Amino acid sequence: MPLKDPTNYPIATYEWVIGMSMLAGFVSFIEKMKLFRMKEFTWWGLFFMIVGLVCEAISSVFVGLMAFAICESYGIEQITSVAIVGLSAHMGTRAIMQMRKFMSKKLGMEEVTENSWR
Fold first, then answer.
1. What is the model's pTM?
2. Which distant-in-sequence residues (6+ apart) come within 8 Å of 39 by Cβ?
3. Distances from the Cα of 47 to the Cαs of 16, 23, 40, 42, in angstroms?
């Protein structure tokens, strides 16, 4: 079995992972925007909405790539990986916390909490 090296995957694989992640991030952003309504249009309000969308897309792509790497390391089928990548990217930074807990248990590491730093 060949070594799973990230440079050996075709570009189309990364395209679907990034595309699915950005789509999930966009859906997450739209859901968050339903909670907030601008009373009146301002350019600063529009600016911060665009910045929020860009930040959501970046974090979603990062989480999607991490989820894809975990799926590949466990040999999960590609169609299942698509679902996991999409759900993880939609969760955004919440998924990072869940992945950290999962990997800590998998590697036998102690879970670090905020209070343990003191």
1. 0.75
2. none
3. 29, 21, 14, 9
